[in-house]
Write a structure and sequence with these properties.
By secondary structure, the chain is an alpha+beta fold. It has a domain of 137 residues: Alpha-Beta Complex (Nucleoside Triphosphate Pyrophosphohydrolase), CATH 3.90.79.10. The chain contains four helices and seven strands. The termini are far apart.
Amino acid sequence: MARVPVLAAGGIVLRQAAPPLIAVVRLRKRNEWVLPKGKLDDGETPRNAAEREVTEETGHDVTVHEFLGTLVYESGGRSKVVHYWRMEAGGEQAHELMGDVREVDWLPLDAAVARLSRSYERAFLENVGPLAVEAAVADPSRRKINATPAKGRRARSMKPARPPLAEPAPELEPPIDSPEPMPGNPEAAPLVEADPPEPARAGTAGASQDRRKGLAGLLREWLRRVT
């Protein structure tokens, strides 16, 4: 009767750098360098097991991304099936390493492949490692700016700017030579220019002068008679 295979899960864990660095862990039992992984607990999904095991073996909180592939090999006379996800480690180490792990190291892809002690893990990382690195570099979440306000601080709501109050237009007085009455003073009469005097007629002026000369002559004649 065939033995039931051992189910396990782990991660290709990257940390932000140029180039990105990949986690490899050193086991205490055999002093081997391996990819972080572990067996599933009862009722645990492979994805949840992968996140838990990676956190325990690397000491880092991680973000789980896309599924990368499955590695199957013989271990202790039984088949072992390991599912791997791409993961990203955040910040500094947050937890102590589990007892089975002596240390964790972060290496570029080529150096991580060379560090691994088991040939089947080296072959697996050579195949899926470039895909994980490319996806990590192109991941838009790495360039996203966190817009969530910090705890304890309330985001200020931006009120729309109030438009400036319009200043009243200055009242313009009409020019003084306007024929219209000035506003606000209904009693003011419009300015009206007087018509120019008509020129005297030449014939009428000459007749008046002759009449005065005639009267003067009569007056002198009467005085002469009296005296």
